[in-house]
Design brief:
elongated, about 60% helix, about 0% strand
Length: about 160
Protein backbone atom coordinates (compact mmCIF):
# COMPACT_ATOMS: atom_id res chain seq x y z
CA UNK A 1 0.00 0.00 0.00
CA UNK A 2 1.35 3.39 -1.02
CA UNK A 3 1.61 6.17 1.54
CA UNK A 4 0.75 9.79 0.82
CA UNK A 5 4.47 10.59 0.65
CA UNK A 6 5.03 7.79 -1.90
CA UNK A 7 2.20 9.17 -4.04
CA UNK A 8 3.70 12.68 -3.90
CA UNK A 9 7.11 11.32 -4.92
CA UNK A 10 5.62 9.51 -7.90
CA UNK A 11 3.81 12.65 -9.04
CA UNK A 12 6.95 14.79 -8.64
CA UNK A 13 9.01 12.26 -10.60
CA UNK A 14 6.81 12.98 -13.63
CA UNK A 15 7.59 16.70 -13.54
CA UNK A 16 10.41 18.42 -15.39
CA UNK A 17 13.32 19.98 -13.52
CA UNK A 18 11.93 23.49 -14.19
CA UNK A 19 8.54 22.47 -12.82
CA UNK A 20 10.12 21.03 -9.67
CA UNK A 21 12.21 24.21 -9.21
CA UNK A 22 9.01 26.28 -9.54
CA UNK A 23 7.41 24.06 -6.90
CA UNK A 24 10.45 24.55 -4.65
CA UNK A 25 9.72 28.29 -4.76
CA UNK A 26 5.94 28.21 -4.45
CA UNK A 27 4.68 24.96 -2.88
CA UNK A 28 2.65 25.18 0.31
CA UNK A 29 1.87 21.51 0.91
CA UNK A 30 4.19 20.09 3.62
CA UNK A 31 4.32 16.66 1.93
CA UNK A 32 5.43 18.25 -1.35
CA UNK A 33 8.07 20.33 0.44
CA UNK A 34 9.37 17.24 2.24
CA UNK A 35 9.54 15.29 -1.02
CA UNK A 36 11.37 18.18 -2.73
CA UNK A 37 13.93 18.16 0.11
CA UNK A 38 14.86 14.68 -1.10
CA UNK A 39 14.78 15.54 -4.81
CA UNK A 40 17.44 13.89 -6.95
CA UNK A 41 18.50 17.25 -8.44
CA UNK A 42 20.51 19.59 -6.26
CA UNK A 43 19.09 22.65 -8.07
CA UNK A 44 15.70 21.91 -6.53
CA UNK A 45 17.15 21.39 -3.06
CA UNK A 46 19.25 24.59 -3.31
CA UNK A 47 16.17 26.74 -3.95
CA UNK A 48 13.91 25.08 -1.41
CA UNK A 49 15.19 26.82 1.77
CA UNK A 50 13.83 30.13 0.45
CA UNK A 51 10.25 28.95 0.12
CA UNK A 52 8.40 31.05 2.71
CA UNK A 53 6.19 28.05 3.54
CA UNK A 54 9.06 25.76 4.46
CA UNK A 55 8.87 24.11 7.86
CA UNK A 56 11.60 23.78 10.43
CA UNK A 57 11.42 20.01 9.89
CA UNK A 58 12.18 20.31 6.18
CA UNK A 59 15.04 22.71 6.92
CA UNK A 60 16.43 20.08 9.29
CA UNK A 61 16.30 17.50 6.48
CA UNK A 62 18.13 19.93 4.18
CA UNK A 63 20.74 20.64 6.89
CA UNK A 64 21.92 17.06 6.38
CA UNK A 65 22.05 17.34 2.58
CA UNK A 66 25.29 16.11 0.97
CA UNK A 67 25.59 19.38 -0.98
CA UNK A 68 27.30 22.11 1.06
CA UNK A 69 25.55 24.90 -0.86
CA UNK A 70 22.16 23.52 0.25
CA UNK A 71 23.41 23.51 3.85
CA UNK A 72 24.71 27.09 3.43
CA UNK A 73 21.25 28.23 2.35
CA UNK A 74 19.74 26.57 5.42
CA UNK A 75 22.31 28.32 7.63
CA UNK A 76 21.24 31.71 6.21
CA UNK A 77 17.52 31.09 6.63
CA UNK A 78 15.95 32.90 9.61
CA UNK A 79 13.29 30.20 9.94
CA UNK A 80 15.96 27.61 10.76
CA UNK A 81 15.41 26.13 14.22
CA UNK A 82 17.93 26.27 17.04
CA UNK A 83 18.27 22.47 16.80
CA UNK A 84 19.26 22.82 13.14
CA UNK A 85 21.61 25.75 13.80
CA UNK A 86 23.36 23.64 16.45
CA UNK A 87 23.78 20.85 13.90
CA UNK A 88 25.17 23.26 11.29
CA UNK A 89 27.64 24.72 13.80
CA UNK A 90 29.38 21.34 13.67
CA UNK A 91 29.23 21.06 9.88
CA UNK A 92 32.36 19.74 8.20
CA UNK A 93 32.25 22.59 5.68
CA UNK A 94 33.65 25.92 6.86
CA UNK A 95 31.47 27.61 4.23
CA UNK A 96 28.39 26.46 6.12
CA UNK A 97 29.76 27.60 9.48
CA UNK A 98 30.66 30.98 7.94
CA UNK A 99 27.00 31.58 7.06
CA UNK A 100 25.83 30.93 10.62
CA UNK A 101 27.66 34.06 11.71
CA UNK A 102 25.26 36.20 9.67
CA UNK A 103 22.02 34.54 10.80
CA UNK A 104 20.50 36.78 13.48
CA UNK A 105 18.89 33.77 15.15
CA UNK A 106 22.19 32.05 15.86
CA UNK A 107 22.47 31.74 19.63
CA UNK A 108 25.31 33.34 21.55
CA UNK A 109 26.51 29.87 22.62
CA UNK A 110 26.90 28.92 18.95
CA UNK A 111 28.72 32.17 18.20
CA UNK A 112 31.04 31.50 21.15
CA UNK A 113 31.81 28.12 19.62
CA UNK A 114 32.43 29.76 16.22
CA UNK A 115 34.79 32.29 17.84
CA UNK A 116 37.12 29.33 18.42
CA UNK A 117 36.56 27.79 14.98
CA UNK A 118 39.62 26.39 13.23
CA UNK A 119 38.64 28.23 10.03
CA UNK A 120 40.03 31.74 9.97
CA UNK A 121 37.24 33.10 7.76
CA UNK A 122 34.59 31.97 10.25
CA UNK A 123 36.36 33.99 12.93
CA UNK A 124 36.92 36.95 10.58
CA UNK A 125 33.23 37.03 9.63
CA UNK A 126 32.32 36.99 13.30
CA UNK A 127 34.70 39.88 13.98
CA UNK A 128 33.26 41.87 11.04
CA UNK A 129 29.64 41.30 11.99
CA UNK A 130 28.26 44.46 13.61
CA UNK A 131 25.76 42.32 15.57
CA UNK A 132 28.44 40.26 17.33
CA UNK A 133 28.20 40.67 21.10
CA UNK A 134 30.97 42.50 22.93
CA UNK A 135 31.87 39.38 24.96
CA UNK A 136 32.62 37.48 21.75
CA UNK A 137 34.53 40.41 20.25
CA UNK A 138 36.72 40.47 23.36
CA UNK A 139 37.56 36.80 22.77
CA UNK A 140 38.32 37.54 19.11
CA UNK A 141 40.50 40.51 20.09
CA UNK A 142 42.97 37.91 21.42
CA UNK A 143 42.82 35.72 18.30
CA UNK A 144 46.04 34.32 16.81
CA UNK A 145 45.21 36.00 13.49
CA UNK A 146 46.13 39.68 13.27
CA UNK A 147 43.21 40.63 11.00
CA UNK A 148 40.69 38.94 13.31
CA UNK A 149 42.20 40.77 16.31
CA UNK A 150 42.20 44.18 14.59
CA UNK A 151 38.67 43.84 13.21
CA UNK A 152 37.31 42.70 16.58
CA UNK A 153 38.95 45.64 18.35
CA UNK A 154 37.51 48.08 15.78
CA UNK A 155 34.07 46.46 16.08
CA UNK A 156 34.05 46.68 19.89
CA UNK A 157 33.47 50.40 19.47
CA UNK A 158 30.24 49.69 17.54
CA UNK A 159 28.75 47.09 19.89
Amino acid sequence: MKTCTDTVKVKLAGLSLDQRIDLAHEAKNPKILEALAKDRDVKVRRDLPWNRNISKEVLFILARDPDEYVRQEVAKNRQTSIKTLLLLAKDKSPKVRRELVWNRNTLEEILLQLAKDRDITVRRNLAWNKNTQKEILLILSKDKDKEVRQTAIENIGYS
